[in-house]
Structure formats: structure tokens, C-alpha cells
Amino acid sequence: MHELLQLDASEAARRVRDGSVPAEHLAQAALAHARATEPRVNAFLDQDEAFVLEQARAVDRDRAAGKALGLLAGVPVAIKDNIHVLGRPTTCASHMLRGFVAPYDATVTARLKAAGAVIVGKVNLDEFAMGSSCENSALKQTRNPWDASRVPGGSSGGSAACVAARSAFISLGSDTGGSIRLPASFCGVVGYKPSYGRVSRYGLVAFASSLDQVGPFARSVRDIALAMKVMAGRDEMDSTTVSNPGPDYPAALAEDLKGKRVGVVREYFDRVPDRSVAAVCEAAVQRLKALGAAVVEIELPHADFGLHVYYIVASAEASSNLARFDGVRYGLRAAAENGIATYVNSRGEGFGPEVKRRIMLGTYALSAGHYDQFYGRAGRVRTLICRDFAAAFARCDLIASPCAPFAAFAAGAKADPLSMYLCDVYTIPSSLAGLAAMSLPAGFDAQGLPVGLHLAAAPMADDLLLASAHALEQDLLADRTLNLNRLPRGLQG
Length: 493
Known about the structure:
Helix content is 40%, strand content 12%. By secondary structure, it is α/β, with parallel strands linked by helices.
């Protein structure tokens, strides 16, 4: 592997800005590495070398002309394929959008480009971001870089896998119920879900609008903070973004853990079926304590209903958002004799089984006679979950838990929907409450697979969360027995 790919994004951008590393060399290294690793990882759905190199050369021309370069100058960044990149395909890993080319940049894409980032490709996901393993993609099966027989997690599986494989320095994903944090945990990278409203969703293909958030993957918290500084802030094209521009995220990393209070729900740790996963997360909590944080036990009495609430609310919103894919205005148009048949055939051929399942569930929950019984009641329980978190954050600054009940599982091991849905049992409650949340690599399970610690903070406390995670990360990285920064074993040799 090229030595440039061992750098983090912050250092790579610094070298491009000072001229010691041309952006084109950085792009060539990432492209060459992708060519070498893609047969094993299978993360990219679209990668055009000419498009990539032209972006890098533009950065080098700006530097040669004496222009000031942005915070991400020359940094190779991959984009989940439900986020628009002007002139490139947006497929959502679905036959429904086969051949669709994005007519504009998503706000996050435009801000990355303005900061000098080089978009190296679009990466795989569960179809329309609905899944926890990346096995629901209609286009290809992405593999976990640590073990090709295992899943990378979902829905942002390609985003996590390409960063773990070193084919991109940063990637973007979307998180509705855990779709950034779960694959980050499975692939051993940092995955960040910002507070709801902190980052624009303009140009993200909507799944569940009251939950969706765009967020970054990287190999360090420092790079996450850098990406957040570039992307976060008010966007007139997204009315859900908050007017507060937010803090200077990289500068906030100087804060330490002394005096911080970390909340722990004891039942979360006790219920983990894989005790080696629980042990990694418990050890990380003890490190937080050793770094000066106070650990307090808290209760989230309604969090156990999170899974039930999520699959009603998210499915209902998906049913509404995906109604636009009708064979007339957007997406695949199947051959048919009349308008109704066009609608039925197009959606039947274009959508995969999981998308159909959620549309049907959501349509039923919204139907006359069932709305209040399902969607209305789910909304009321969601309010109770939000109140539980508000009460918890009166007693603590952060909440720590396992990110997933287990490490990455074998492809095909969770064929029934319920066992797949249970993957997100620890991540969903914080999504329902709009919290800032992340998965931080904390160690390895008994089989040598990565394990992520889930950390959450109150809405808009993104700077506190990133600073705390950075302090813990530095302590973890200093422990050479963990060797957290090593290349995934599936790519060694």
C-alpha cells in the first residue's frame, strides 16, 4: 500500500496545501489502491478515473496559481450512492434508478468540493438505505475488509468499507436508525451521526425525513471534526437545518474528559449476547473513567420500545417519500398497457424485497382505521423516549453503550427480517431523539473482529461529543496491545 494512504485526511490536506504532495499523486494512490482491493471489498458502484484525476489537477492548478486552498485540499472522499454528485449516477443501489444521473450537487457535496476535496466515487449501500448489512443492494455485495466472508454492516456498508480498506480518507453516509454507526463498528472506523438539523440533507434521497442525517466516516475523530467543519451549518435549501452555525469542531478537540459525566445503562451491557463484545465496551468505559470522567448509571425506561417505534415511523415516512418512484416522474418505467399497470409493474420490477416490505408496512400504518393505532401511538412513545434522554442528560454529559450486540456476522447469517432489524437495537433510540451519536473503534472481539463503542450526546452538543471521543481515541491508540490502527487482516499479505 502506498505510504500516502497511511496519512489521515488532516495531514494529507496539509501536505497538499504546502506543496509537498501534489493532489494528483494522492488521487493516483487512492485509485491504484482501489483497483487492488476492490476485487475483495467491492465497495464502489461508480469510479471514473478521468473524473477523479481532473478534480485533483484542478486543486494543483489552484495551488500553482497562488490561490488559497481549502481545508480538504486534495483529500480523496467517497460518497454514498444516495447523495447527489453532479453528473454522476445516483442509483440508491436499486434497479429503480438504473441510468439516473444527478442533475445537481447535494449541499454536502458542494461544500466538500469548495473545500478542495476530490470525489473518488460513489459507494454501495442497502437499497434506498434500508438494511443493516449491505446485503439488500440490488447491484453488488460489498464485503468486510476484515473478513470477506462477513458483511460490512448497513446501510452505509460501502462507505465504511472503502475507508477501512484505505481507498478513501473520508466517506459520507446517511444514518436513519444506525446506518453510519453500525457499519463503522463492523469495519473498525469512526462513524458519526450529527445532531438532527446540524448537516443539510438537500440532495440526499429521502428515506425517513424525521430521522435521516448525513454524516462522515473516517479513520480518526480529528478527520471527522474536519469534515464537520466543512459540511455543517445552515442551508436555505433544507428548512430542518438549524440557524446556529455551530462551533469550530477541530478546535473543540482540545477539551479533555476531566469533569465529564458518562451515563451507562447497565442493562445494555448485560444483554449483549457476545460477552467478548461487552468486555471491549466495558473496558472502554473504564478508560473514560481513568481519563477523569465520572461514570453514572442512568435509566432509559422507554428505550426498549425504540425498535418498535422506529419501524413504524421510518416505514410510514418511507411509504410517503418513495411514492414519487411511480414509473412516470422518476425511475424505471416498465412496459405496460395502461397507466395503472405502468405504476404497478414499475414499482414491482424496480424495488427489491426489503423496500417493498417497508413500503407495505408503512402504508398499512398510515391507512384509515389504523393511523392512530400505529403511527399516532408510535409518535407518542417517541416523545417519551425523547423525554427519557432529556432526563438522562440532566445527570450526564455523554451516554456510552455497545454499538451493536455483536461484531460483523457472516453473509447470509441473518436471513429473516427480525434478526436483521435487531442489529440496530442500540443505535435506534438516539436517532429517534435526534442526538449526536457515533461509533468509535474500541478493540476487537474474541475472533479478532472490530468492536465499536457507541457514544451519544444531547442534541447540538456535537462539539462535546467529538472532544470526548478524541480524548478516548488517543488513549486507545496509545495502547500498543490493541493495535487499533493496523490494516484490516483481510487486506494483509
